[in-house]
């Protein structure tokens, strides 16, 4: 019997019912994925086949679908503007962490759609990648952004206790580099050791969105204690690195705080384990 040609196989495939077509494609891709995992051909180093369930992954990276709202409905038109500053000077960390960018966009937009009053703030700016996301929505909605950082890496005062062994990290930045990435409009910069850089004006503000990315116990604790009472009802705090074992101090500080104020965290599986906290709408103004 002569061997079927590629055209014969295609014709046979085209005659299948749609459900059988899907099953055939899935089976073919799964088979190909197994072969590629065995040989490493055709995939970038460390990239696992996307159809394999997470428990079967043996590599650091995997392929994932873009959200339907973006890929099929173009509901994130601002992504084209934000992807540049999201990656600038920090592509090694952020190019594989698009779920975090989508989560920032989705949740900040939700808070704005609900018309939660208040400004934006960030403690732990590094090179301004997430700050650029805050800046975009602040300009669109008429809010101010308050950025707090040493702009020179971890302060020695915070590398103590459970963080005593933390490296002297994130010093490869500067205020000028951040300014270049986020722009000047509606931005306020507070270089130095937080909360010592807080002014009376800042202390009198209310906040709708606060992003905390400071990794260590003491600054995470200080951020929660300062910003949460000033968070508007319905406001959002985003705590980066909460579920990241590299930075156990961040989780310890957040856990201790939410127990004291009887709040709840919602976790997301981005690269470094972000947690989110929203203040209930009925919360007292000083709560």
**Helicity level:** 25-40%
User: Structural class from helices and strands?
Assistant: alpha/beta
Q: What characteristic shape results from the CA principal axes?
A: globular
In spatial order, strands of the major sheet run 5-4-3-6-7-9-8
* H/I helix tally: 11
Low-confidence stretches: 38-50
Strand content: 5-15%
> In total, how many beta strands?
9
Which labels suit this protein?
287 residues, alpha/beta, 7-stranded mixed sheet, two-stranded parallel ribbon
Task: Explain what you see.
The protein is built from 11 helices and 9 strands. The protein has 287 residues and is an alpha/beta fold. The longest helix is centred in the N-terminal third of the chain and has 22 residues, at 18-39. The N and C termini lie far apart (80 Å). A 7-stranded mixed beta sheet has the order 5-4-3-6-7-9-8, with helices on both faces. 40% of the residues lie in helices and 14% in strands. It has helices spanning 6-14, 18-39, 68-71, 79-87, 91-94, 98-113, 129-141, 175-182, 200-203, 217-227, 248-261, and strands at residues 47-48, 61-62, 119-123, 145-149, 187-191, 207-212, 231-239, 266-267, 275-278.
